[in-house]
Design brief:
There is one protein chain. The chain is of the alpha/beta class. The protein folds into two domains: about 200 residues, Alpha/Beta hydrolase fold, catalytic domain (Rossmann fold); about 35 residues, no CATH class. It has ten helices and six strands. Strand 1, helix 3 and strand 2 form a beta-alpha-beta unit. The chain is globular, with a radius of gyration of 18 Å. This is AB hydrolase-1 domain-containing protein. One of its GO terms (biological process) is phosphatidylserine catabolic process. GO terms for molecular function: monoacylglycerol lipase activity; phosphatidylcholine lysophospholipase activity.
């Protein structure tokens, strides 16, 4: 349970309705991005603040982020279901206080991309709760394959016991984060972002997710369902962005505006 000085020392408003007043007072034409951060630390990590600031300044969107249970100053213990429940609560709260009048996007990075994918899939079952789109930055196929391909696993994965040990530990912890499997239930545009020099979650994860998503899209067309699902991928090549620095790319926002965000804002 980590709480950085930036979170611990920040000033808190005493107005319990601050966020509600702000979101309600804004034009319904201004979209909202809910940012779901990755594993470890909290919402104040430099890259997380960097992308939120970029979305706010360059797109003029409202950006809402939070710490899951067990992260930052949020109490409790993190679980897969718990993280998704927290994200769903935030989405429902924002959707309700804005009366569903504002576009809501979900942006998830690394672990947050898996949470975003599952949340989008669950929202597809609720016709009254629609998403404008999902951005998955440095996503992984599932948590088991993420562990197998992590650069630190190079030290151990040749050992015959490694695969079974990690599988057993994940099963005991009830962790799966099956991003590829949940793509088939999403009913909104989806964009993958990945740098080819990401050694934490290798680039190949997004390539496989893209192919899986394209197959889902074709299947949906044939079955005449989930008409709003599309999938695209923006790649970043040899720029030193690694796992966490895609937000520094000058092409990021223009590319997203062309694919998923409103170009006229």
């Amino acid at each position: 349970h980590y709480r950085s000085p930036l979170v611990a020392d920040q000033s808190y408003t005493t107005d319990q309705d601050y966020f509600q007043k702000h979101l309600v007072s804004q034009s319904s034409a201004i979209p909202i991005v809910i940012y779901l951060h990755g594993n470890a630390f909290d919402r104040s990590l430099f890259n997380r603040r960097g992308i939120c600031e970029k979305l706010r300044k360059e797109l003029k969107y409202d950006v809402f982020t939070f710490d899951y249970r067990g992260y930052g100053d949020s109490t409790g213990e993190p679980t897969e279901e718990g993280l998704i429940t927290d994200a769903r609560y935030v989405y429902d709260w924002i959707h309700n206080i804005t009366n569903g009048q504002r576009k809501i996007y979900i942006w998830g990075q690394s672990l947050g991309s898996a949470v975003a994918c599952q949340l989008a899939a669950r929202l597809s079952d609720d016709e009254s709760k629609t998403l404008a789109g999902v951005v998955m930055e440095a996503p992984f196929i599932n948590i088991h394959q993420a562990l197998q391909t992590h650069y630190l696993a190079l030290l151990f994965r040749w050992q015959p016991w490694y695969y079974g040990l990690t599988e057993k530990a994940l099963h005991k912890s009830k962790l799966a984060f099956q991003t590829r499997g949940h793509l088939s239930n999403i009913n909104c545009p989806c964009v993958l972002l990945h740098s080819d020099d990401d050694y934490t979650i290798p680039y190949a994860h997004s390539k496989q997710l893209l192919q899986a998503g394209l197959s889902v899209r074709d299947h949906n067309k044939k079955e005449k369902k989930l008409f709003h699902f599309t999938i695209d991928m923006i790649s970043f090549h040899s720029n030193g962005y690694g796992h966490s620095l895609i937000y520094r790319s000058p092409k990021l926002i223009p590319a997203l505006k062309h694919i998923i965000f409103d170009e006229d804002l």
